[in-house]
Every structure is written in C-alpha cells, then in structure tokens.
Amino acid sequence: MQATAPGIAFLLTKTLPQLVQAEIERLILSGELQAGARLNEVEIARRLNVSRGPVREALRSLEEAGLVRYEKNRGAAVRVISPAEAMHIYEVRACLEDFACRRLATRITAGQVAALSGLVDEMDGPAKAKDAAAFHPMNMRFHELLFEFADNGELASVYRRLVASLNLFRQRTLAQEGSLVESNAEHRAIVRHLAAGDPVAVSQVMNHHIESSSKRTQQAFHKGE
Predict the structure, then answer these.
(1) Are 74 and 107 part of one and the same domain?
(2) Domain match, 73 and 88 both
(3) How confident is the model over 21-75, as pLDDT tens digits?
(4) 212 against 221, higher pLDDT
(5) Are residues 117 and 170 in the same domain?
(6) Do 108 and 160 reside in the same domain of the chain?
(7) Confidence of residue 209 (pLDDT cuts 50, 70, 90)
(8) What is the extent of the structural domain holding 72?
C-alpha cells in the first residue's frame, strides 16, 4: 500500500470544524471577507458544502482568535479593528518581538541567519517596486520565522493571534503604507545584530522597527480617510 500524500495526511489530522475554520480564516485574512462583513451561517455552509454545525463551531473559535465578533441583533461579523485598538496591538507586539529577538540572539544558528538573510534579499525586489501586495506576505513570514527560531511555542501562538487581528486593520492601509525599502533595511539590521549575537542591539532595532511600522500604518490610515 502506498504512503498517504502529505497534504492528505494533514487533512486527516483535522476535524471538519477545524477545516471550516481554516477556510473562513483564509477568506478573512485574504480580504475576500472584509472587516465588518456579516458572516451568515447558512450562506457559509452552502459555500463550503457543509452543515451549519461545523460553521457555528468554527465561528466561535474565530471569535476566540480575535477575528470574528458577535454583535447584538446582528450575529457574527468580521471584526473591525479601530485605530486605537491597532495601536494597542502594536504596543503588545513590540513587547513580544523584543523578547523573541533577545531570546533568539543567544541561540541563533548559521542556518537560521542564512534563511532570514535570504528572505530579506528576496524582499528587496517588491520593496523597490513598491509592490505592497507581494511584500506583505514575505514580511509576515520574516517575523514568523523570528518566533519559530526563538523556539517558544506559547510565545509564537500569542504572536500569531495578535498579528491576525492586526492584519484586519492593515488591510485598509497596506496599499498606502510608507517606504517598503526603509522597512526592509530595518529587517536587514535586525538580522545583522542577531548574527552578531547582540541581544541589546537587536532589541533597540526591533523596537524602532515596530514603532516605525506603527507610525506608517497610522499615517496611511489617516491618508485614506
């Protein structure tokens, strides 16, 4: 008997509500379901060809994950993140990324440095072309790798939940955000200090990076109003 294909093996480890949740999350984070959009259980069940039960369970899990909000007399909707909420998320994100980088600076391997450096080099093209749509997924991957390499599963889990919520706000500003070249230069400095094993220097650069990102997002939001 042939071995099960990796994709099928992955699916077999997931329950139906988990698969439904993953698909709704994909639709939200891709922008197909935008912030504020109502999430009708019947329509989603019909779209995904499942019963309402798994959809209801998935929406409750997404509420716990910060992507869905239940409103009185309106039901479930994609969560709308206000500018004030977004700035609070940035503040918490700065604390998490500071800790992750300090931890990583004391244990990073040559292979991990190479992976981060290669991704930063790859991001140069979209940055110079001002292609935010191409830059954004790679930017997310860069920061995810920092947490993956820091080797603390609980920390990574909290970060993913936080950033998923923040992305709901950034969907409204991404195309207008400031210099991608500047942002990627900050990434390169982060990698340089990680490679040098300097937790103090990488902490300073990371905090500057998050503060700059927060300011760029605020400016883009107000510009788009």
Answers:
(1) no
(2) no
(3) 999 998 988 788 888 899 999 999 999 999 999 999 999 999 988 899 998 888 9
(4) 212
(5) yes
(6) yes
(7) very high
(8) 6-78
Of 78, 107, 128, which residue sits at a domain end?
78
Domain tally, the chain: 2
Residues 6+ apart with CB under 8 A from 134: 125, 126
Helix 41-48 to helix 16-29 angle (10° resolution) is 100
User: Is there a contact between 215 and 221 (Cβ–Cβ < 8 Å)?
Assistant: no
- In whole angstroms, what is the distance from residue 56 CA to residue 15 CA? 14
Task: For residue 199, give both structure tokens.
Answer: 């937790």
